[in-house]
Each structure stands twice: as C-alpha cells, then as structure tokens.
C-alpha cells in the first residue's frame, strides 16, 4: 500500500480539507493544490475553480456518482467524462459514465472501441434493472441535463446534481444547489476545461500510464472535433492541445479519424444534397425518415452542406424512429461559418418552445441542434401515403419557421 509520502510528485501542498479522513483512507488521501502550485499558465479565475473542485470532491470522498452524458454522446462529452472519472477516482469516488441513446457516429464508435473508453449504454432494459439509489450524486459534463432521457429518472430518484462542467450557454435553471458548477460559454470545448483541470494538478497525468495516454488521445479528439480541427480554437484550446501533445498517442488518434462512413450515412448525405434549398446563404435540407442508429448522419450532412460556396449556414433535419422507446422525433442540426449568427438564438427564435416551456433547440458557437417529438402522429408507418403526408407536414412547417427568419419576404412555394 502506498504511504502518504509517495503521493504523486506534482508539487502540491498538504490537504486543506476540513474533512478528517478515516485511517484506512489516509493512504489514498489526495492533496489539494495551493494556488501557487498550479501552472502559472492557467488564468487565476480558473485556478480558483480547480481548488474549489478539489475541495468539493474531497467532501464527497468514497461516494458513487452517476455521470450522465447526452443521449448521443460526442467525442467532447465522452473524453471529458473519462477525464472527470479519472480525477474523481483520486478521491475514491466511483463514477459511472452512462448514456441512454446510441453511439452513432463512426468516429465515436471507433473512439470508444480503440481507447477502451469506459462509457456504458443504459437502454430501456438496463434501466429496469438498475437501482439508482446506489448513487449519491449526479455529474453532468458537456451538458446541463437537457439532452438526456436519463435526467428525469435521476430527478425522480432524488439524486442531487453535484457537478456541472459545460461550455454551452446557460440553460434553464438546473437544480444544483450544493453543486460545483463550471460553465464557460466562452470555451470552445468541455475537453479544454477538463484538460486544464488535469494540467492544474488534479491528477498526476502522464505518458507512462497507458490509460492516461488513451484519455489524452480522447481529449485531443474531443477538442479537435468541437473546434473543426482547431480551426475555431482559441488560446485556451491551443494551450490544452499543447499540454496533451506530450501525452497523447498520435497514431491512435489517426486510427480513430480513419474510421469510414457507412453506406447509409453516405445515402443520407446524398439525400441532403438532392433536397437542399439555398436562400440568402442558408442551405436547408429535409432528408425524410432515417434509422435511429443513423441519426448522426444529420450533423454530418449539415457539415457537408455548409461547405458549398455562398452558403454560410446549413440546416438538415429528418424523422427518426426510436424503437426502444417507441417514439418518433424530428431531429435536426445546424452548422454555420457565419460569426454573427448565434445558433442558440436562431433555433430558439425560429422553433420556439413546447407546452412545458422547453425550447425545441439550442446550440453553441457555430453549431446547434433540435428535437421535436412527433407526438400523436407517431407510428402507422406501414401506410405509405400517411407516412409521406406526415413527413410533408413537418418538412413544410420547419421550412416556414426557418424561412421566416432567413428571408422574411419569402413565401414558401410548393409544387
Ligand atoms: Mn462540447
């Protein structure tokens, strides 16, 4: 067993926590960095957050957390969750990374497989068998709980939200009274924030530890994918990438990026190309019905349509059927290169909110997404004519709503 003196040599001071560790836990006691010990490259405000996080985790020592990521996890969420899990383990906090939907982007599947990223899918069947009372806290990373089907269950089970780390603009008030909250809308990725925590000494993150190498590779992928390969990166992302560059595995990252698109994804992209309508530099495309597993084809199609000349913003949407929960949803993605267009504002303004006061969509810098339940019209898709009609209704309504903002003088003309 390691003695107290053999703690990682990262120049940290003695524990400042008020909690008195039990004797058997003292060997695993982690110190909390003094502000001066943290890299001078990290801005003072962020240093304060790192200290706060360490105290917060110390206060939860030995607990079990459920770390909920969005239903369709992206590399930023996956890698940030993993980094958090490793940090929390310093405090003997067992953190389970879970999501309710699917991994649908070929790169995400490759990322999880190739790095052994410890995220678990909790489908409807698993949910029936799981006892949520095992968890003392819920952690939200790269999200504020609005994009997971698991959150209502977490709330029902009275599991308090104990940590929120995100870079999306503040969503409707999340109930997180005694939580550690670090929301940085100015940050281009959550991986940037987590990398800073690592750099700040929350963990002896190093290249001789194979898990750390893989996690660093995941973080590098996370911050690249949220910044269009660093094109939209700011100083903080470059600093984070520089730090990770000493630890990550370039070959492994390359393997993740080499993953190929499936034929079905290619077909959705093809449909988006055929169906697109371009007006005032916006490209709009409805792709009809697609399988739940292929829903990630939508943001990929939007990425692609946004590359056409004279197009600054692309919107792609389609209807997916979630068989597990028997719900149909219109889901859509927005991608923009126009600096003055705020995707969050655009989607909230154009689509509004549902009866319960929740916005159908939202976003961050350069990207956004939306989800509209098909509701009462769900199902009966064995009737071709009905199915076609249903699509046309949603397609037309979405075009009307978007064109109202894109081109107020425009009348949607239908053949
Ligand atoms: Mn993100």
From TrEMBL:
**Which positions fall inside the DDH domain?**
66-222
InterPro entries, alphabetized? DDH_dom, DHH_sf, Oligoribo/pAp-PDE_c-di-AMP_PDE
UniProt feature coiled coil, ranges: none
Composition bias, Polar residues: 1-32
Cited Pfam families: DHH
Instruction: Give the superkingdom in one word.
Output: Bacteria
Region: Disordered; residue ranges are 1-33
Q: Which PANTHER family match?
A: BIFUNCTIONAL OLIGORIBONUCLEASE AND PAP PHOSPHATASE NRNA
| Name of the protein in its database record | Bifunctional oligoribonuclease/PAP phosphatase NrnA
Organism expressing this protein natively: Synechocystis salina LEGE 00031
């Amino acid at each position: 067993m390691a003695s107290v003196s053999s703690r990682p040599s990262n120049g940290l001071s003695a524990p400042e926590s008020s909690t008195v560790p039990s004797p058997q836990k003292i060997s695993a006691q982690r110190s909390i960095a003094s502000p001066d010990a943290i890299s001078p490259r990290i801005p003072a405000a962020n240093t304060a957050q790192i200290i706060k996080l360490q105290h917060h985790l110390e206060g939860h020592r030995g607990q079990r957390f459920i770390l909920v990521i969005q239903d369709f996890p992206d590399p930023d969420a996956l890698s940030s969750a993993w980094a958090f899990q490793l940090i929390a383990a310093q405090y003997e906090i067992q953190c389970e990374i879970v999501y309710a939907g699917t991994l649908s982007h070929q790169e995400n599947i490759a990322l999880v497989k190739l790095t052994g990223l410890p995220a678990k899918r909790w489908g409807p069947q698993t949910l029936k068998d799981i006892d949520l009372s095992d968890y003392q806290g819920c952690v939200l990373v790269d999200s504020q709980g609005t994009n997971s089907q698991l959150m209502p269950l977490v709330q029902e089970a009275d599991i308090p939200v104990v940590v929120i780390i995100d870079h999306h603009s503040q969503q409707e008030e999340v109930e997180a009274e005694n939580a550690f909250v670090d929301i940085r809308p100015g940050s281009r990725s959550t991986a940037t924030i987590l990398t800073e925590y690592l750099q700040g000494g929350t963990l002896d993150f190093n290249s001789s530890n194979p898990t750390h190498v893989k996690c660093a590779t995941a973080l590098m992928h996370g911050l690249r994918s949220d910044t269009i390969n660093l094109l939209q990166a700011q100083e903080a992302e470059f600093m984070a990438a520089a730090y990770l560059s000493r630890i990550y595995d370039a070959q492994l990252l390359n393997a993740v990026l080499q993953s190929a698109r499936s034929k079905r994804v290619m077909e959705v992209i093809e449909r988006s190309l055929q169906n697109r309508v371009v007006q005032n530099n916006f490209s709009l495309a409805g792709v009809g019905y697609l399988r739940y597993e292929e829903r990630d084809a939508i943001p990929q199609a939007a990425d692609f349509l946004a590359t056409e000349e004279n197009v600054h913003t692309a919107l792609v949407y389609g209807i997916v059927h979630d068989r597990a929960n028997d719900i149909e949803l219109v889901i859509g993605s927005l991608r923009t290169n126009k600096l003055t267009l705020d995707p969050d504002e655009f989607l909230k303004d154009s689509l509004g909110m549902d009866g319960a006061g929740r916005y159908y969509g939202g976003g961050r810098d350069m990207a956004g997404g939306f989800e509209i339940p098909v509701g009462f019209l769900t199902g009966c898709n064995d009737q071709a004519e009905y199915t076609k009609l249903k699509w046309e209704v949603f397609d037309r309504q979405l075009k009307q709503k978007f064109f109202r903002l894109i081109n107020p003088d425009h009348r949607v003309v239908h053949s």
